[in-house]
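Hello again, I could really use a second opinion on something today. I've been staring at a protein lately and its backbone has me curious. Please have a think about how the structure follows from the sequence. I owe you a coffee for this, so here goes:
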Amino acid sequence: MKRSLAVILLLLLVTGSVLAQEKKTEKQETNIRIEQTKEEKSNYYTVRFGAWFPKDEEKAFNYNNNLIEETGDFADQSQALGLDFHFRRNVGRPLFFDASASVWYTTTDFNFSNVTSNPDEIQDASTWSIILPITVGLSVAPLPDNPIQPYAMAGVGAYFGFTGRDITRVSNQNEPDDTETYIRFGFYLGAGLDFLFAEDFGISAGAKYQFIKFDDPLFTGQTDLTGLQATIGFVMRVR
């Protein structure tokens, strides 16, 4: 009788150990699947600051259908600077859906004091332009689980252009501010690099070559804004 009880207890102990091990293994596999699912659905939010180097550096000034092309030596033009907000979501390794919105600002000050052909008797003109690209696209990250994550990207979108100018005549009479709004569709190709030095936070760098040309010149004297965009900032991963 004692032997039978001992055998039964031993069997129960072995069975319990096997079941516990199976449950532990199943729990580990479940945790692994959950972590993989979280990783696959990771969202990356990036904020970067940088400069845009447009192809078009025209410095001619157009006013009342009078094109003044002698302003090249009398124009003080600033580089376009701005902020880029970039969102990436994993839709199936190594593919990501991208969405971005950015704002870029540039100014040009024209001085006409030494311009010989000045039919409108303009003394100086202060002009500005704001470009707002809103784009969607795809990116490919060959190392989606690596803390150092390079990726290539491409996309299309709408490019809004807001431009204005303030003119002062030789008589020191100021013209009312003049503003215009344009919209064109363009596309971009680029690459990025996210370095997560913490679990879900890091540094991000990006480069985009924007392809965009407006039908009419901005008041800053630019039409073709095709060119390189270089940015650096921070990235946060949300799972």
Remarks:
- The mean pLDDT is 82.
